[in-house]
C-alpha cells in the first residue's frame, strides 16, 4: 500500500553540531500539513528529531515547532500511529531547551544536541506534533471571530477574496466545530500579515491548506475586508451505563473528527452548564466513575462559568491519553470519568404496590426507593403523606428478589411532612463514586399501620 506524505519545511542557516550539519527542518507525515514528525536534514539526509519523547509528554518544544512552521502557538501531542515512524535511532536528539526559545534557529546555541538517540533514553518512540492550524480571535468565544490561519509557513490574517461558506466549513472543521452559521468581512484587521490569495474549497477538506489557492499573492486587499467566521461547537453526548436513561451517563465530546472523554473533577456550575449544552437546561449534577474504558483523547478538569453554549467555550485543553502504565506521571486518580445526571428529579407521586414496595414517580417513570439511609422517621412521614392516620410503620429492606422497577435513589421528607411536595429524591450516586457494580440492591418495602 502506498502512503502519501505532506512535507512542510523551512530553510535554515546550516548549524554545525558535533560534526553534523543541520540544513533544514521538515514536519512530515501522512495527513494534515499541520501534523507530523519533526525531521531534520543532516548531511543531505532527513532523519527524525528526538526530544523528550518518553511517556509522550507534551514539551515546550512542541509549541516552538508549531510557531516555526507558521501555526498557532499551541499543539496537541499524538503518539505515532504510523508504523514507518517507529525507529530505533534518531538523526539527532535535543534536550535541556529553555522555555524562552522563539525559533528552531536557536537550538544550536540554547539546547544540548547530540547525534543519534540519547544513550539513557528508556524508549525510542517518536511523537507526532499536531499543531492547531488556525484560530478565531477577538470574538465572543473561541468559535467566533477574525480568522488567523497558518498558511504555508506563516500565520496570517485571511482576506475575503473568494472566501465562502465552503471555506468557512473547513475552518470550523479545523476548530472542532460542526459547521458554520455565519461568514462576514469586518474592519478588525489585527497585526498579522494579510493573506490575499483566493481560497477555494469543496467544503470537505480537513485543512484550509489543502484547498485550492489561486490568484496573485500580491493582490491588493484592504484591512477592512478580513474574514470573520462563527461556528457551531462540537457536540457532547451521554453514554448510558445503567439502563436507557438518556439524561444520565458518561460524558464524552467531539472535536476535529474524534471523540474524547471528559475526566477529572467538575464543579456544580460546570455540571449544570454541560446539561444545558446537552439540551436539558441548567439542572442536574455530576459525580465521578472509575470505569474500565479505553480512552485515547481527553479533557481534564473542564471549567465552565454558566453562560457557555459549547464545551469549546469552557476552559479545558484537548490532550492525548498517556500510556496508563506510566503511573508515576499519569496518576490513577485522574482516570476518573465525569458522569452527568441531567434532571431536577422532581417527585410527582408516592405510592405502595400491592406487595408493599415503596414506589416513586419521577421523570414519568415508576422507581423503587433505595433502602440505604431510609429511616423510621422517613417511613412515618411517608405513611402520613399516603393518608394513614397512624404514623407507626415498619420499614423492611430486602434484596431477596428484584423489584419490578429500577431503584433510583433515596427519599427524604421534611419534618412533619403532609404532602408529596414535602418529600425529595436524592439519586443514589449524588454524593459518592458512580459504579454500576455498587448500585443499590436493597429497596424499601413499607407497611403502614
The overall pLDDT, averaged over residues, is 78
Poorly predicted regions: 1-7, 10-16, 323-333
Strand content: 35-45%
CA gyration radius, whole angstroms: 29 Å
The total count of helices amounts to 5
The termini sit apart by: 79 Å
Report the principal-axis shape: elongated
What is shown here, in short?
The protein has 449 residues and is mainly beta. Helices cover 10% and strands 37% of the residues.
Give the topology, please.
Blueprint: E1 6-17, E2 20-29, E3 35-42, E4 45-51, H1 60-68, E5 75-78, E6 92-95, H2 107-110, E7 112-115, E8 128-131, E9 134-141, E10 144-150, E11 155-158, H3 165-175, E12 180-186, E13 194-195, E14 198-200, E15 212-214, E16 226-231, E17 236-239, E18 248-255, E19 258-263, H4 268-277, E20 285-289, E21 297-300, E22 318-320, E23 337-341, E24 347-352, E25 358-362, E26 365-369, H5 376-385, E27 393-398, E28 407-413, E29 423-427, E30 443-448
Parallel strand pairs: 4-6, 11-13, 19-21, 26-28
Antiparallel strand pairs: 1-2, 2-3, 3-4, 3-8, 5-8, 6-7, 9-10, 10-11, 10-16, 12-16, 14-15, 17-18, 18-19, 18-23, 20-23, 21-22, 24-25, 25-26, 27-30, 28-29
Amino acid at each position: 500500500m502506498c502512503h502519501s506524505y505532506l512535507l512542510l519545511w523551512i530553510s535554515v542557516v546550516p548549524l554545525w553540531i558535533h560534526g553534523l550539519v543541520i540544513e533544514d527542518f521538515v514536519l512530515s507525515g501522512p495527513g494534515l500539513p499541520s501534523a507530523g514528525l519533526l525531521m531534520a536534514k543532516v548531511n543531505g539526509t532527513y532523519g527524525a528529531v528526538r526530544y523528550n519523547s518518553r511517556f509522550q509528554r507534551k514539551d515546550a518544544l512542541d509549541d516552538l515547532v508549531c510557531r516555526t512552521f507558521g501555526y498557532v502557538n499551541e499543539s496537541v501531542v499524538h503518539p505515532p500511529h504510523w508504523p514507518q515512524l517507529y525507529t530505533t535511532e534518531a538523526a539527532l536528539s535535543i534536550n535541556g531547551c529553555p522555555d524562552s526559545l522563539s525559533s528552531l534557529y536557536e537550538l544550536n546555541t540554547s539546547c544540548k544536541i547530540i547525534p543519534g538517540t540519547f544513550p539513557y533514553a528508556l524508549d525510542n518512540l517518536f511523537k507526532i506534533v499536531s499543531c492547531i492550524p488556525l484560530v478565531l480571535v477577538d470574538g465572543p468565544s473561541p468559535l467566533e471571530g477574525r480568522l488567523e490561519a497558518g498558511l504555508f509557513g506563516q500565520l496570517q490574517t485571511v482576506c475575503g477574496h473568494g472566501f465562502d461558506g465552503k471555506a468557512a466549513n473547513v475552518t470550523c472543521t479545523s476548530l472542532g466545530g460542526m459547521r458554520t452559521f455565519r461568514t462576514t468581512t469586518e474592519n478588525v484587521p489585527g497585526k498579522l500579515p494579510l493573506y490575499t490569495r483566493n481560497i477555494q474549497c469543496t467544503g470537505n477538506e480537513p485543512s484550509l491548506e489543502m484547498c485550492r489557492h489561486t490568484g496573485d499573492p500580491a493582490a491588493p486587499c484592504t484591512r477592512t475586508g478580513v474574514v470573520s467566521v462563527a461556528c457551531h461547537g462540537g457536540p457532547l453526548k451521554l453514554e448510558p451505563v445503567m439502563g436507557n436513561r438518556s439524561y444520565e451517563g458518561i460524558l464524552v465530546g467531539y472535536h476535529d473528527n474524534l471523540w474524547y472523554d471528559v475526566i477529572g473533577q467538575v464543579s456544580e456550575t460546570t455540571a449544570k452548564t454541560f446539561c444545558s449544552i446537552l439540551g436539558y437546561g441548567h439542572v442536574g449534577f455530576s459525580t465521578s466513575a472509575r470505569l474500565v474504558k479505553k480512552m485515547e483523547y481527553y479533557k481534564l478538569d473542564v471549567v465552565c462559568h454558566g453562560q457557555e453554549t459549547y464545551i469549546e467555550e469552557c476552559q479545558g485543553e484537548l490532550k492525548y491519553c498517556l500510556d496508563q502504565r506510566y503511573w508515576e506521571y499519569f496518576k490513577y486518580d485522574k482516570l476518573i470519568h465525569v458522569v452527568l445526571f441531567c434532571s431536577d428529579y422532581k417527585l410527582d407521586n408516592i405510592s405502595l404496590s400491592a406487595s408493599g414496595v415503596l414506589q416513586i414517580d419521577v421523570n414519568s417513570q415508576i422507581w423503587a426507593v433505595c433502602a440505604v439511609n431510609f429511616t423510621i422517621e422517613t417511613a412515618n412521614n411517608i405513611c402520613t403523606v399516603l393518608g394513614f392516620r397512624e404514623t407507626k410503620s415498619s420499614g423492611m429492606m430486602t434484596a431477596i428478589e428484584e423489584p419490578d422497577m429500577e431503584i433510583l435513589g433515596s427519599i427524604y421528607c421534611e419534618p412533619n411532612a403532609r404532602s408529596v411536595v414535602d418529600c425529595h429524591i436524592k439519586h443514589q450516586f449524588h454524593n459518592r463514586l458512580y459504579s454500576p457494580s455498587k448500585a443499590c440492591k436493597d429497596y424499601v418495602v413499607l407497611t403502614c399501620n
